[in-house]
Structure formats: C-alpha cells, structure tokens
Amino acid sequence: MTDLHRLSIRELSEGLKTAQFSSRELTEHYLKRIAQIDPKVKSYVTVTAEQALAEANAADAALKAGNAHTLAGIPLAHKDIFCTQGIKTTAGSKMLDNFISPYDATVVAKAKAAGLVTLGKVNMDEFAMGSTSENSYVGATSNPWALDHVPGGSSGGSAAAVAADLAPIATGTDTGGSIRQPASFCGLTGLKPTYGRVSRFGMIAYASSLDQGGPMARSAEDCAYLMNVIAGHDAKDSTSINKAVDDYVANLNGTAVKGLRIGIPKQYFNVAGLDADVKARVEESLKKLEEMGAILVEIDLNMTEAYVPTYYLIAPAEASSNLSRFDGVRYGYRCENPVDLMDLYKRSRSEGFGAEVQRRILIGTYALSAGYYDAYYVKAQKVRRLIQQDFLKAFENVDVIAAPSAPTTAYKIGANLSPTEMYLGDIYTLAVNLAGLPAINAPVGFDKDSLPVGLQLIGNYWSESQLLSIVHQYQQNTDWHTKRAAIAEENA
Ligand code: GLN
What we know:
The chain is of the alpha/beta class. The chain has a domain at 4-250 and 480-488: Amidase signature (AS) enzymes, CATH 3.90.1300.10. It has helices at 9-17, 23-41, 49-65, 106-113, 156-163, 180-186, 220-230, 276-291, 307-322, 341-352, 355-368, 374-394, 419-424, 430-435, 464-477, 486-489; strands at 44-47, 75-79, 117-122, 169-173, 189-192, 213-217, 261-265, 295-299, 400-404, 439-446, 452-459. An 8-stranded mixed beta sheet has the order 4-6-5-10-11-9-7-8, sandwiched between helices. Strands 1-3-2 form a 3-stranded mixed beta sheet, with helices on both faces. The longest helix has 21 residues, at 374-394. Glutamine binds next to loops. Residues 128-131, 154, 174-178, 206, 315, 426 line the site of glutamine. Its EC number is 6.3.5.7. This is Glutamyl-tRNA(Gln) amidotransferase subunit A.
C-alpha cells in the first residue's frame, strides 16, 4: 500500500484491527517517507527507527492476540521537549545536546502503554521559546506548504511532520501558543487543553504555570484519539487535576453547533497587524458556523492590550527560575577547561544557551530581582488575574470565543523580525495560557500565497470535548482539513 499516510487515525485503527496491514508495514512506510522526504522538511531531530520497529512488532502481537488498545500500532512523533528514556531529549538546545533522560515523561509513558509507536523526536524552538522553530540549536524546520517559510513554533517540528505526512499525529506543548500557532501555519488541528488536564511530568519546563501538552493532527477526530490517551490526572505532577476525563472520541458529536453562542471580541478584529486575508478567512469560517446554526455575539475583551506585556514578563520570570538548573554541573553542556566554579557556570550557560533563551533569562531575572519584583512581577500577576476575569465574564454570555490563532500566516525563514515584532505575533494565543483555558486551532483556508490560515476557538475550563466537537462538526461540513501540501503528496 502506498497511501497509508493518507489514512485518519480511525481508519488506521480499523485497518490494523482487521489486519488490512500490520503496524510493521505502517511503521516501515513512515520510516521510508521520513528518510526520503524529511531531508527537505527537517522536522525530526532524532529518528528512532529501531525502537519503532520493535514497538510495531509488539503492537502486531497484541493486535493478533486481540488485546490491543484502540491506537496500538499507530505511529506518532514527540516534540523533543518530552523526556524519553534512553533516547536523546534536546529541547532544541545545545545545553541538552547530550542529554538522555533516565525516565519517560508521563505523556510518553501513556503513549507507549497504549501501544503507539514512537517514530522519533521532532524539532522546536530552544526550550519552547519562539514562534518560528528557528531558535533551535539544530537549525530551522521548513513549512511543508512552502519550504522557504517557517512552520511556526515552538512546536514547529510536530506541525511540519504531520503536515508533510511524516507522522499521522504528534505531541506538542503550548505555553503561549506553541500548539495553536504552528497548527495554524501548517494547516492542522491542534488542541491546547485546560491547564492541569495533561501531565507536565517529564516535559522540560519553560514557564510552569503556563505550560501544557496537547495533540497536533489533521483533524479534531484525530486529536480526540490522542487526547483519550494523554489526558488525565498524574500524581507525579502536583498541578495536574484529579477530575474525570471525558471520552473525547465518543463525545465528538456531543455539542450541537446549532444554537451555540460564539463570542467575537471586538478588540481582536481591530488589531493593527491583522493580515487582511487572515481576517477574511476567519470571518468566512464564522459565517459557515453561523450557517450551521451558531449565533455570533459581539463581545468585549478589554484587557487585550495587556496580553503581550503580561505574558512576556511572567513567562521569562518563570523561565529564568526553571533554567537555573542548567548550570554545567548536573545536566548537559559543560564548557571546556573551567578555571573555577563561577567560570564553569558562566561559560557553560553562555555557550550552551542561544540568544533568545539568554534574552529571556535576563528579562526574567531582572523582573524578579529585589527592588523590581513588586513593580514588574507582582503587577503582572495582578493583571493576569484581570485577564482571567475578563474571560470568565465573557463566558457568562457566550459558550466559546472565536479569534484568529495568529495575525499573519507563516513568515519567511530568516525574516529576522525584531523580538518585539515576534512577540506581537502571539497576541491571540497568550491570554489563553495566562487564564489556563483550553483552545483549539482549526484550518479554515489559505491566504493569497496559498499559506494556511487558522481559526482559534477558546472554551471555558474543561471544555475540550466541546471544542473538539465543534471543530469536528465544522470539518464534517468543510474540507480544509483534508487539503495536503504538495510535499505530502510525494510518495516515498
Ligand atoms: N511564542 C511564545 C513564546 O515564545 C509561545 C511559545 C510557547 O507556547 N512555547 O514564548
């Protein structure tokens, strides 16, 4: 079979169960595609072919014995921020270029337990700081829709791998948009769950009060299958919430779009940098949802201007603390011939961290320093609460809130935006993390350069099923999620 990579997760699951193909064949098919096509996309940092084939054989045995999980034998790629026992986990950093974790992240362990086959680890901005994946120590990943463009970030490798059909699904993480924005840039569906829904154990920390893992895939249905595996309470993560998990697949038709109240924040559609094509596609998608029975309600989100400054204070502050563990002593990179301990710390960190990571450590350390702490960090925390309250007030009147996922489509590789220009590109995604809410990106068409545009739907706490269900129904009535980049149509 040459077109196994075109099958959805449900079709793959059925095909494996009914022995139309084996996990071994499926895995070999993907490994062959990776070998031939990934040199152009550069989404993988590490391909774990040997382990993948062993896992595929085990899945085939379980399938034969009739005791396999729904997803047994289906391949996936993990963002290189999830610790994988015995396999390098770099977080896109020279600092961790030689780091092999002694344990699996909970997300990885759950995927393994379900019999999913790990194809490898995919590229990302260093320590998840960035929006292009260019901040990776190993270099940039290409957007499958236009190879001279970025796939977005920080989960750019995850997005590019799925969009080029080099993995049917992937894990990502989202601290301020890193699942939704690359999903938007690459024409995919990506879900950022409620803070605490997916365990952060073994997920290398960027900003711990904002970080959340989630699925990236072609469709809401595919995302639902992966959510069923990775969501849930974990005693090893004290911020993971002990609350019953939905059956995201069974609930796909659970929310009626008919009568659904969708809030359209006035402030969001007047943002200066909002691209005309992005605006038009998002508005068309809302029109479609309206035709399907949704009610569009204009709302106010008055704190919009505070999103970027608040996030870019809190996230670097937490990062400066989290990244202090990388000191050249316990983990990863160590400078050559240190003259004393201070020299070891300083040079290991200066040589091991890239420019953007160093910028954030500096900003964060400054914001947390005695004398500035109240003026910056404490103030930002207060504004964070106001941003959350703004959303909660909006949810008294609407079921979900619509927005673009990003104000533009994918940038050119090397566009070299200034840090502030880059940060402003995160305007639509940051507040969701500050408030801890779930949100989803769905592909809704293309701009004049044939680059994908994404619609973001933000839900109230624990509304993952509702968000997946809305997008699923939208996808039953449209075909944007079925469009494939030319490179994905290439047969290996
Ligand atoms: N682009 C944002 C940042 O650089 C968000 C990244 C993320 O979600 N990990 O911080």
